[in-house]
Design a protein that fits this description.
The protein is built from no helices and 4 strands. By secondary structure, the protein is largely without helices or strands. It has a two-stranded antiparallel ribbon with strand order 1-4. It is globular and about 40 Å long.
Length: 73
Amino acid sequence: MVSPLGIADADMLTLDFETEYHGLHNNSKDLTGIEVILNTWTIKVKENGVGDFKSLAPDAIGELFLIINYAIT
């Protein structure tokens, strides 16, 4: 789950498995018209069907990429 807008469940993005990206989990959100402060992002990772964010094994993630596409107006 990735949230540029806060830490409430409604703010989170669920990363989906996509064959298009060779099995990488991904998602995107269009924030056009929304002012986003880049120093307040939250990244939380958990497995599907697990109720908390503490049960993920320490070696479960080999790499994590966050790509931000933005324009300055």
